[in-house]
Amino acid sequence: MRTERVIIVKPYASPIGVLLLGSFEDRLCLCNWRTTAEHGRRMDERLQTRLSATYLEGTSEIIETAQSQLEEYFAGKRITFQMPLLLSGTDFQRSVWKELLQIPYGSTQTYKELACRIGKPAAVRAVANANNANPLSVIVPCHRVIGSNRKLTGYGGGLEIKRQLLCLET
């Protein structure tokens, strides 16, 4: 008998927008803004394909932990997240996402700086694309990456949410 692989998902209404939280095998694999249907659809398809799994609405211990820590973050009481993560992507994407985890709360970095930090200074566009494909927004803080002119650029949740997250952290 074949067991179906599932990603347990649950919407979380943050103070600045709805996030879809997802867990797979006791690790958080999804924390994605639901502000644009197209971005959400692409993220959902990529994640389900990578994990050969389908979504099942419900909750899990890791989703409850994520929700609790996100509530603390939005209340200004948490600056780092502590939970097991599943970074589901290519080797390059995972290298970018791991580096995002090193950007301190309240700090920003440019796409160029991030490309240099992973040892690929010419890969600025690829770094931006990996940032956009990050399935763990807020938890893996892609909102802390800005343009080389130090202005806000692209964010899957939209620039207004990116601005609000950066304001929350200052």
From TrEMBL:
Catalytic activity: a 4-O-methyl-thymidine in DNA + L-cysteinyl-[protein] = a thymidine in DNA + S-methyl-L-cysteinyl-[protein]; a 6-O-methyl-2'-deoxyguanosine in DNA + L-cysteinyl-[protein] = S-methyl-L-cysteinyl-[protein] + a 2'-deoxyguanosine in DNA
Annotated catalytic residues: 142
Domain Methylguanine DNA methyltransferase ribonuclease-like: 12-86
EC number: 2.1.1.63
Domain spans labelled Methylated-DNA-[protein]-cysteine S-methyltransferase DNA binding: 91-169
Gene Ontology biological process terms from the UniProt entry: DNA alkylation repair; methylation
Keywords: Cytoplasm, DNA damage, DNA repair, Methyltransferase, Transferase
InterPro entries in the cross-refs: MethylDNA_cys_MeTrfase_AS (IPR001497), MethylDNA_cys_MeTrfase_DNA-bd (IPR014048), MethylDNA_cys_MeTrfase_DNAb (IPR036217), MethylG_MeTrfase_N (IPR008332), MGMT (IPR023546), MGMT_N_sf (IPR036631), WH-like_DNA-bd_sf (IPR036388)
Top-level EC class: transferase
Short name of any one Pfam family annotated for the protein: Methyltransf_1N
A GO CC term assigned to this protein in UniProt: cytoplasm
GO molecular function annotations of the record: methylated-DNA-[protein]-cysteine S-methyltransferase activity
Cell compartments where the protein resides: Cytoplasm
Further comment: This enzyme catalyzes only one turnover and therefore is not strictly catalytic. According to one definition, an enzyme is a biocatalyst that acts repeatedly and over many reaction cycles.
Role played: Involved in the cellular defense against the biological effects of O6-methylguanine (O6-MeG) and O4-methylthymine (O4-MeT) in DNA. Repairs the methylated nucleobase in DNA by stoichiometrically transferring the methyl group to a cysteine residue in the enzyme. This is a suicide reaction: the enzyme is irreversibly inactivated.
Protein family per UniProt: Belongs to the MGMT family.
Protein's recorded name: Methylated-DNA--protein-cysteine methyltransferase
Organism this protein belongs to: Phocaeicola massiliensis B84634 = Timone 84634 = DSM 17679 = JCM 13223
